[in-house]
Structure prediction request, 165 residues.
Amino acid sequence: MQNTTGYPQCRIVPMRMLSPDTTKRLLEKVVTVPGIRRILLNGQNLPLTIPYGPARGAKNPHSMRKTIKVADSDIDLHVQVGTITLEIEDRSVTEKIRAICNEFFVDFSCYVQEGRFMKSEPSLVDYAKYGPRADKAMIGLVDPKRKERPSVIRFSKDQVCGWEI
Prediction:
């Protein structure tokens, strides 16, 4: 049920950066929770080529830049995941996410925050890049400077989840 301020959001904040394998295992559990509208992965950028310094332009063979498979979709990780932001249907989903995190993170801790973490209305930059008919599901998930489109995960026939990686 949507109210005037938009859908509620929560953020999973682990105390460590997540490896691709850990990210995959956590996301496989998270996408099973009904009521998730959108997911945004944030973290340190892992560029394909070295952007500055004496090796500028050389390939950057980083071990954390991998492709993971979640809900029958392949996701190229462009970041080392530090936080996972979720837009949800209602606040009861937050407790389910918190229960998954408490069960999943046993070697180190994490916490689940509630608040507003991603845009819900198009900005001037969104309008300039995507025009007046921009996909509302992608608002707040796309870095305007990035040339690649974000990956879209379909984890059921009637539910689509956008990812900015």
User: Anything to note?
Assistant: Residues 9-163 form one domain. The chain has a mean pLDDT of 82. The CA atoms of residues 69 and 75 lie 6 Å apart.
